[in-house]
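As promised in the previous annual report, we have extended the structural survey to additional targets. Below is the entry for 6-phosphogluconolactonase.
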Amino acid sequence: MQYRHLILLVLAVFTTKMHAQNIPLYVGTYTNEDAEGIYQLQFNTETGTLSKQTLAIKIDNPSFLEYSPNRKYLYSTNATNSGFVSSYVVNDDGSLTMLTRMRSHGELPCHIALNKAGTKAAVSNYRGGTLAVFPINEDGTLSDASQVFDHNSEKTKSHAHSAHFVNDDLFVADLGTNSVFQYELKKGEYKLDTDAIVKVKGNPGPRHFTTTQDGEFIYVINEIESSVTSIKRSNNKFKEIDFDSTLSEDFKGENASADIHLSKDEQFLYASNRGENTIAVFKRHPKKGTLEKIQNASVHGDWPRNFAIDPTGKFLIVANRRSNNLVVFKIDPNTGELSFLQDHKTPTPVCLLF
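The corresponding structure token record, generated without further manual editing, is:
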């Protein structure tokens, strides 16, 4: 009898431990096919296993997702011709309840970012070519945009693709104008500081970017030229320090690069290739900030639009839009290289949020 009780105790501890290792992963989708909205899965931070996929809320084209700092609320762009941005309450069971739905002030919003205080959201409208800044209230609701920036001109059609708050500044990557803009916070409003932080050659098409925690280095992924531009910031001046292809030397087809992230320890950089269907892995020089490509890992699917590194830094998960699957990789902590673990069927995934 004691032996049986011991087995039951071990099983109970094991079950509790496995449950504690599961964390939520939200998936934004395009709903013009089989997807219905935002999905939630459980991700095991020890095994890398995805499970328990449920529909968190039925909503149209939730193309990009972001949490509030306290993780009580979730925000999404809704990539429609009219263009919307939505806020939700995160319920105890992981489901979402709509709070507010606002016009995004531009067609096809594709990216949303919050400042550290959770008091502002920046929404990039791809087709509209505008960036809108929305005040966020204490209850998680959105107020109408307090500022809208239009990057279009008579000569150039803007395609604002992403924005991030870096300390008090707001940076915007614009694929249409081939620029990364810097807005400075002055007397409670954002003011354009410069037309572009660095001058670029040709038509690279800056899409997304990431920064080191100290804000000294910025890494921009270029959709059209399939490359990464590395930028160093010093005394609020910017200098391009490196430029690297994301593609294998022997790849000859068409490609459109998409997403970019630093590893948790900032020793490695990852970039997704839609067409070659790989994740490019770069080793990063910690002081110089320059990059060296060390791997192009197959994503075991088609069209990796977005990917995410889990909070432990041990796994990288890719959203393959056209093949309708999520793919989990193990990250080698010493080399940064990726090794395939598993895939999970999910309809038209385009954004991942831990």
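Helices lie at 2-20. The chain has one domain: 55-345. These points will be discussed at the next consortium meeting with the crystallography subgroup.
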